[in-house]
Design goal:
Maltoporin, Chain A; 1 helix; 6% helix; globular
Length: 390
């Protein structure tokens, strides 16, 4: 009872403080949003049923964005966070932060450039990775920073545009002895876009990544080069049907001979269909290779599909539904294959112009040929969303 009382008081205090903070922000050139969630999760570490821990939790997730500029130059600062406190499992608490700053310059009518820097302190959802951690009490957490520099020839409204980006990402894990997953990724992207209709474009894109891991002594180096070449189409038909789909070839080549390379078909796409003024359907699909989070192993092939529905039952009441399916194929272990299923159903009610409340139910599961990799999880939550914008 003592823990429950303290937890209830903390819920009330943080919920009130988040709403007051949002209300005090100046919305000139500024947008602010804060989700306050009270929920119950019956498997917080996404492990097998016999090892599952259930707990109540409170999450406060602020999103802040400030944009400005002069002439054709644009600057933006952004922050989003996620602070989660569990009622009983204190070691599972996490406080995620993500800071970004970007500047976009139009030097001439044809040449432009962009620069971005970012820092994040985040955790990994244990159900999203292929690593099996049956006895963890703390989530995998890491620090990450990145720098991006880009150059474009041609405007977004031009018939053709060429863009080049360089991005350097540095990630360091600091929990659960995962130092062998620390890496630096140098990535170069080149893209040519051509307008074939007022709101329809085709494009060719190449992405080349050089991923350098820094494992402690005794671990296998899993350094690799990842290349992806794709051709795509993007469109927007009278705000009714829009999308961006591409298909191509991928190749992940490991430097160590004992690790199996991955190559073949890759695709990525999303389509949004605004069926009418109150119903919207979004479909997504993706096939890519992903580095494994297991020691001394290469990558695996992940294919995922999702479908989302938003439907306004009334002017103030909205129905949200999501369905997702995925499959992980492990080239380093032909005996293991994971299948993922997730679905979510929620009702959102707009109490005031800047305040809405939601009730959600979410289910996640992983079915695997390896019994210890299987899990089921159910999450019930109530969410209050505060929004301020120009």
């Amino acid at each position: 009872m003592r823990n429950q009382t303290k937890f209830a008081l903390s819920l009330l205090t943080l919920a009130l403080s988040s709403s007051m903070a949002a209300a005090q922000e100046d919305n000139t050139g500024f947008t602010a949003k804060a989700d306050t969630t009270i929920g119950y999760d019956d498997n917080i570490y996404r492990v097998t049923d016999e090892l599952a821990n259930s707990d109540n939790f409170l999450t406060v997730a602020p999103v802040l964005n400030m944009a400005g500029g002069f002439g054709k130059q644009r600057f933006e600062l952004a922050y989003d966070g996620e602070y989660t406190k569990f009622s009983d499992s204190e070691d599972a608490d996490y406080y995620d932060h993500n800071f970004q700053a970007r500047a976009i310059f139009d030097h001439t009518l044809r040449f432009g450039s962009r620069f971005e820097v970012g820092y994040s302190k985040e955790h990994e959802d244990p159900g999203s990775i292929n690593r099996i951690q049956l006895n963890i009490t703390e989530y995998n957490k890491y620090n990450q920073n990145y720098f991006l520099a880009g150059l474009t020839y041609g405007q977004a409204s031009s018939i053709g545009q060429i863009a080049f980006n360089y991005r350097r990402t540095d990630r360091d894990y600091y929990t659960n002895d995962l130092d062998f997953l620390d890496f630096v990724n140098d990535q170069i992207t080149g893209r040519f876009t051509y307008r074939i209709a007022p709101k329809t474009r085709i494009y060719l894109e190449a992405v080349i990544s050089d991923i350098d891991y820094d494992p402690p002594e005794g671990f296998t180096e899993i350094d690799n080069k990842y290349k992806r070449y794709k051709a795509g189409l993007s469109w927007d038909f009278t705000n009714k049907l829009s999308g961006d789909v591409n298909v191509g070839y991928q190749d992940r080549n490991y430097e160590v001979d004992g690790l199996q390379d991955i190559s073949g078909l890759a695709y990525d796409g999303n389509i949004t269909w605004s069926m009418n003024t109150y119903t919207k359907l979004v479909a997504e699909a993706k096939r890519e290779s992903v580095d494994s989070s297991l020691e001394d192993t290469g990558g695996f092939l992940r294919t995922s599909y999702s479908l989302s529905l938003q439907h306004e039952l009334t002017e103030l009441l909205k129905l949200n539904a999501d369905l997702g399916y995925g499959k992980d194929e492990f080239v380093f272990n032909q005996n293991r294959q994971d299948k993922r299923l997730a679905y979510q159903l929620g009702l959102e009610y707009e109490v005031l112009r800047f305040l809405s409340v939601s009730a959600n139910y979410m289910h996640q599961e992983r079915d695997s040929t390896l019994a210890t990799a299987e899990f089921d999880a159910n999450v019930i939550s109530l969410i209050a969303t505060f929004t301020l914008e120009d």
